[in-house]
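WP5 quarterly update. Target: K Homology domain-containing protein. Source organism: Rhipicephalus microplus. Length: 160 aa.
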Amino acid sequence: EAVKTALEEKVREIQSTMDSVEIKVDPQYHRHIIGKAGSNVNRLKQDLGVTVHVPADEERSPVVRLEGPPEGVAQAKTELLEMAHKLQNEVMRELCVEQRFHRTLIGAKGEAIQDVRRRFNQVNVTFPEPGSRNDKVLIRGPKEDVDACYRHMSQICQEH
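Structure tokens (predicted):
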């Protein structure tokens, strides 16, 4: 009887210090939740003491399980749901610019592209590798910002 009571007490103690919750995240965003080389899940484990269980790709399940201290689980849940929401609202547009005009968009010492990045700080602009014979400049971020950046960069190209 004493063992049973001690065991029940230990179970209650564990339950009060540990929590688990399941959140739904579209499987296409799972790799972003995991992060490069597991960076996001490792950070949550280290900073919040939360273990993140992401289903294998072949399962195609949206259920992501979080386990750890109640406060950490709550914070991790908020962070991961915000990340998923941002990813859902993210778009990518291609701006076709002849390779010879890439320098115009980048500017001397990168000044022009730095100005674009300051103006549209939610947007990521990626140029193809020099000499790749690729004319596509990728603009990625929230839809409204991407559209505004696209218009701005198109206008710069038309002016030159």
